[in-house]
Amino acid sequence: MTTNSSHRSFKNRLHDIIYEADTPAGKLFDLVLLILIILSIIFVMLESIKGLPDIAYEYLYYAEWLITIFFTFEYIARIIAIKKPFRYIFSFYGIIDLLSTLPLYLSFFLTGTSALLTVRALRLLRVFRILKISRYIGESNRLAKAIKDSAAKILVFLFAVLVLCIIMGTVMYLIEGEDSGFTSIPTSVYWCIVTMTTVGYGDIAPTTALGQFIAALIMIVGYGIIAVPTGIVSAEYASDKKHGKKIDLNTQTCSNCNISEHKDDAKFCYKCGEDLYNE
Amino acid sequence: MTTNSSHRSFKNRLHDIIYEADTPAGKLFDLVLLILIILSIIFVMLESIKGLPDIAYEYLYYAEWLITIFFTFEYIARIIAIKKPFRYIFSFYGIIDLLSTLPLYLSFFLTGTSALLTVRALRLLRVFRILKISRYIGESNRLAKAIKDSAAKILVFLFAVLVLCIIMGTVMYLIEGEDSGFTSIPTSVYWCIVTMTTVGYGDIAPTTALGQFIAALIMIVGYGIIAVPTGIVSAEYASDKKHGKKIDLNTQTCSNCNISEHKDDAKFCYKCGEDLYNE
Amino acid sequence: MTTNSSHRSFKNRLHDIIYEADTPAGKLFDLVLLILIILSIIFVMLESIKGLPDIAYEYLYYAEWLITIFFTFEYIARIIAIKKPFRYIFSFYGIIDLLSTLPLYLSFFLTGTSALLTVRALRLLRVFRILKISRYIGESNRLAKAIKDSAAKILVFLFAVLVLCIIMGTVMYLIEGEDSGFTSIPTSVYWCIVTMTTVGYGDIAPTTALGQFIAALIMIVGYGIIAVPTGIVSAEYASDKKHGKKIDLNTQTCSNCNISEHKDDAKFCYKCGEDLYNE
Amino acid sequence: MTTNSSHRSFKNRLHDIIYEADTPAGKLFDLVLLILIILSIIFVMLESIKGLPDIAYEYLYYAEWLITIFFTFEYIARIIAIKKPFRYIFSFYGIIDLLSTLPLYLSFFLTGTSALLTVRALRLLRVFRILKISRYIGESNRLAKAIKDSAAKILVFLFAVLVLCIIMGTVMYLIEGEDSGFTSIPTSVYWCIVTMTTVGYGDIAPTTALGQFIAALIMIVGYGIIAVPTGIVSAEYASDKKHGKKIDLNTQTCSNCNISEHKDDAKFCYKCGEDLYNE
């Protein structure tokens, strides 16, 4: 019973360190993790640059192994610390964690999987989990809410833009032809999207007078309708701001169901009823 | 009398399947149509790509005929199912339906009309009719309303931008001359629109110091005034949001006058008074 | 006395036709003028295109003379019809009218002034005067008001952007040097404006790693601050919309002081007290 | 005592001239300074242009020395005129003043420091200090407030955009490879930022079908989310506008702690309690 209790207590302490950010140990753990993730991304980027001295690639290789081993231990610790491991393993962040740790081992055992190594860039997504320590969490919640509220409208809008791009792209394919780079309808649609979104690479550009006239029309229309999604989000955000109430959330994570963002004065998990202060 | 009644009942059932989306059969029909339209657009796109194996073009040709025959039957069914066929034939979607079905037949009987085949891209517009099955209909209605309310203002604004572009384009034509690609006033105006809308291809770019200075001015002005249409739509949308009431509309279409979007509890067509549940 | 009276009556009728748009004759006059201005602009544009057949340039030359003679008569009529001609002559539109009519005569008498012909593009500005016939006048008034209300803020904003561009342009000049096209500080500032406003020609683009990093920073900042002027105009426009009252203005112009946009029920000019219905 | 008093009085007068803009002498001083700063920036720009006649560089050199000497005297005067000189020396503008004056002296005594001369472009920042004479101060205060209020949200948003750019850049590096210019992950991320912010240089552009498809997706997403920061600032600005009160501030600067923007009827410094009218 004592061992069991001390074991539970170990698991609880591990849970506090890994999943929460309200204790000094938890904050330190998150900080170390954040630095390692950012370092790791920088290493992946550096590795892709050609022309560095050979010794640099060697150091990057060792650094990569060190970080990967740390992440492996972290992954195992996360599974141990939680009551229902499968809920973590098959959660969004659980899959990201696995995907960003595995490739290096695979490239060690199997040849020809070095392309997989780039999957490690997904580690960057883990930054968002850690950012719960930040005072920006309230802002990003409100941002996410405003985007979610406007999502349906913006999707309808983007769909309409896409249909317009396909039709205008087809028209431009007929007018400009292959000499100006409009080699097929998909390419023309690509050009139309590049133009409509005001990106304008210039790798494909109309050369005939009629083509330039229609391109100008497309741009003016694009300029006029860029206002629409902006107006939507503005209105949504303003109305959200008016009615919204700020609720103080903390970073405590339920050790049973892995749900976070409980209210500050919460005693039980709002999802599964688990006692949050249960030792 | 029985045959007449069974005939009316057949027409009614056809009407329910084709024009409405509240019954399982209607939903299925719309789904099949949606898939066929999207497939058809993909086929038109693939056809335009050069360098595919010959067998691919052959398959695309057969697939195209299959889809066109289906659309032909659908077109005929739509005419049969409605009480006033001419109202459908000369409606916006009726013309789109005809235009997107006819070209293949024409290309079969007449040579040299293969350019017409691209008209089939118009089929994409039919997607909007089907989307009435979607829960996005309320959103797109509100979007369309906000755009319509702001249309007059945005047109005034775009007209002012156009006048500015013509005058600045003429100025740039005088300053830069033909060496930098400003070969004529229309080309310079095209360049000015490309710049003002922040598309910026770079196929034409000022090379003289004075030209670059004026181009910078044009950009700064363009950057400053891009705010105007956005502000308009935002304000319009926000005020619409404040005063707007959500009304539940369904997808029922009057079999007499082809008007859709009746209120959920409507018994008679709000336009022509036709009994909507009339069998 | 009779001749004088008939003369006044002729002047009054001329004034009604030229300066007002509420009578059928005034509407017709404005429509003819609008068509001639647009035709004239199209002719100026066509003239600048090289490679047309010689006969086309000849026709354009004759058409230009016809239009110029009409505009000359119009200019003289405008001076005759108004009570205080100098107020018209030195008004904004008076100068535009003169500038867009004179160049052709000058090019006839003086050689080497053909570059002046492009000044005729200023005729386009006259379109705004005619548009008082349009139902868009209310919209453009509100637009102009929103822009004017936001002008001070947008100028402050654009000034800050300009200072930022000058400083970042200098930094990029130091980093990239002449090899990448950053040949001088003014050129670098030009590049920075092109980038910050998201135009992005690509005629000058950073090639060093540090230069690309700073360019990316500039873009992200530019992307973030593009929101500011938009937010300003939105807020200004929305508040204007809330407090604004729609006042019915008509197109009547005072024959004494040339002020237009009197209230619908105005009997006397709000500026100079002239009786508006005085015969 | 008399000398001391006259000395204090001299210091006070100097303080009024240099730090304040409410007296004629202070306004004149600010105007002269503004002109000299702008002239100086123009000179720095001109110097960087190659191909001017040698005599021009010589004149620019002398002009630069004249302006630098004036700025040196101004710097010394600023230190003398204030009660707590270190507060000025280590303030933001104090450091800018030093940095923009020193390089010319350094380039005179040390060779190889001519690159430092470009630091003089920082002088432009001093313009903001002088602009307190302008009626735009109220506007820029409100602008700065709206930006500051939205800063946290916009930073969260830009961070999310950056993460998205890094992940999509890595994806494009895998798809496009080195042939299309995607030579390394950092370069691909740079391309992704250029695309997402709709700058679109075109120096790097996808050439494969899959790459163009994903690029189009990135653009559409970028087009959709450009609305977000705009919406934030709009809402912030509108709400600020609603609740904000205009307070009349003047340009008086406390001679003790160098704080400006006291209320119009202030008698004592709101920060340190110094008597503002103390002679």
From TrEMBL, chains A, B, C, D:
It is a multi-pass membrane protein. The keyword Chloroplast does not apply. The keyword Hydrolase does not apply. GO terms for biological process: action potential. GO terms for cellular component: voltage-gated potassium channel complex. It comes from the Bacteria. Residues 27-243 form the Ion transport domain. Keywords: Ion channel, Ion transport, Membrane, Potassium, Potassium channel, Potassium transport, Transmembrane, Transmembrane helix, Transport, Voltage-gated channel. It is found in: Membrane. SUPFAM superfamilies: Voltage-gated potassium channels (SSF81324). The chain crosses the membrane at residues 28-47, 59-82, 102-122, 154-175, 213-235. Its main location: membrane. One of its GO terms (molecular function) is voltage-gated potassium channel activity. Coiled coil: none annotated. InterPro entries: Ion_trans_dom (IPR005821), VG_K_chnl (IPR028325), Volt_channel_dom_sf (IPR027359). This is Ion transporter. It comes from Aquimarina algicola.
